[in-house]
Design a protein that fits this description.
alpha/beta; Rossmann fold; seven-stranded parallel beta sheet; binds 1,4-dihydronicotinamide adenine dinucleotide; binds the ligand C[C@@H](CO)CCC[C@@H](C)[C@H]1CC[C@H]2[C@@H]3[C@H](O)CC4=CC(=O)CC[C@]4(C)[C@H]3CC[C@]12C; oxidoreductase; NAD(P)_dehydrat-like; steroidogenesis
Length: 368
């Protein structure tokens, strides 16, 4: 918890603070931002774990609200020094309509920006995504690229489209005059695939493996690298950016940063096995067990089934043409921009990230 001997003067707002990443950001702020006086957590669904945070030296204010409602956002932002906007609809499985994804991710972000401008909040950090860049619809590889690597970022799927639009809004808002006459300072963080405690898809794979008698079947070639980053390090980057944005506004304002750490470069499935292996699962096959064309067919079939069944039930399997394309296209980053601009070093080593994640998967065992 924060050291109360230091001056506690700052008010932070974390939107989406009860999500997978948001919870880590919230806990990290309470542990590592000693200047915090009040931490506001704004989310559509508030978690019961928030109660335990309310006994510490920092005032924790839980706000149940919707980013698509401008007045709710403005009320939450008023008086905050820093906004970390991590709320978003992460849906690549067709659970929600494209319109809703746009409304939450794009209009919601616009509401956050306008709230900062209207109420005089100067510092805004946006959780963007690697998906803003790629993989693109052409399936071109992005191999150990950085923030300046040329890449044709063309999307059709509602999720990456919405993240790209929202990121642009945030970056374009840098320098806008906020109430009181000072400029807004914004930047965007682009995590690759986040893993760690609370990662729902990891849990889904684990339970799928248990149902299949402790086995998972390789579908993606081991040579396809997929960028992954530990949730604790992503949270730490948010905390650092929030701290440094004021002092390095000229350098950091309007910038994007990939989120990275020392997690190894592996395929999506091989990487998951770093955690699921020690929990008793086995990945069968050194090569994909099915030909790629069959996977493409199954993915297309899933889309058709989703559409046919929609009037009756929500059918949203992990495999669809989009998730297959993302999993099957190399996308990894290699950059030190965050270190150069704001002194970021990963807080958690790969070994620690791995240990923590394995421990969490094990405790998640009974919660199928
Ligand atoms: N999970 C991943 O691998 C990656 C996630 N991201 C981004 O990180 C952010 C957080 O993602 P996760 O923690 O994985 O997702 P999550 O779904 O666990 O968390 C999102 C949070 O936003 C809240 N939320 C959704 N709609 C809302 C609304 N209308 N008003 C207020 N709150 C709302 C949800 O209730 C949830 O608590 C998102 O912006 C996502 O695009 C970026 C890269 C990778
Ligand atoms: C083909 C299947 C065989 O086992 C595997 C399917 C895995 C997919 C569900 C995931 C593979 C890559 C993931 C995405 C990636 O990590 C980047 C992301 C960034 C975000 O901002 C949101 C989540 C996601 C789109 C993530 C979603 C799940 C995958 C597509």
């Amino acid at each position: 918890m924060a050291n109360s001997a230091q001056t506690q003067e700052l008010v932070y707002l974390v939107t989406g603070g009860c999500g997978f990443l948001g919870e880590h950001v919230v806990r990290m702020l309470l542990q590592r931002e000693p200047r915090l006086r009040e931490l506001r957590i704004f989310d559509l669904h508030l978690g019961p774990w928030l109660e335990e945070l309310k006994t510490g030296p920092v005032q924790v204010t839980a706000i149940q609200g919707d980013v698509t409602q401008a007045h709710e956002v403005a009320a939450a932002v008023a008086g905050a020094h820093v906004v970390i906007h991590t709320a978003g609809l992460v849906d690549v499985f067709g659970k929600t309509s494209p319109e809703t994804i746009h409304e939450v991710n794009v209009q919601g972000t616009q509401n956050v920006i306008e709230a900062c401008v209207q109420t005089g909040t100067r510092f805004l950090i946006y959780t963007s995504s690697m998906e803003v860049v790629g993989p693109n619809i052409k399936g071109q590889p992005f191999y150990r690229g950085n923030e300046n690597t040329p890449y044709e970022a063309v999307h059709r799927h509602p999720y990456p489209c919405s993240k790209a639009l929202a990121e642009r809004l945030v970056l374009e808002a840098n320098g806008r005059e906020v109430l009181g006459g000072l400029p807004l300072v914004t930047c965007a963080l682009r995590p690759t695939g986040i893993y760690g405690e609370g990662h729902q898809i990891m849990k889904d794979f684990y339970h799928q493996g248990l149902r299949l008698g402790g086995r998972l079947f390789r579908a993606i070639p081991a040579s396809v690298e997929h960028g992954r980053v530990y949730v604790g390090n992503v949270a730490w980057m948010h905390v650092l950016v929030a701290r440094e944005l004021e002092h390095r506004a000229a350098l950091m304002g309007g910038q994007v940063y990939f989120c990275y750490d020392n997690s190894p470069y592996k395929s999506y499935e091989d990487f998951n096995m770093e955690f699921l292996g020690p929990c008793g699962l086995r990945l069968v096959g050194t090569r994909p067990l099915m030909p790629y064309w069959l996977l493409v067919l199954l993915a297309a079939l899933n889309t058709l089934l989703q559409w046919l069944l929609r009037p009756l039930l929500l059918y949203a399997p992990l495999l669809n043409p989009y998730t297959l394309a993302v999993a099957n296209t190399t996308f990894t980053v290699s950059t030190d921009k965050a270190r150069r601009h704001f002194g970021y070093e990963p807080l958690f080593s790969w070994e620690e990230s791995r240990t923590r994640t394995i421990r969490w998967v094990r405790t998640a065992e009974g919660s199928a």
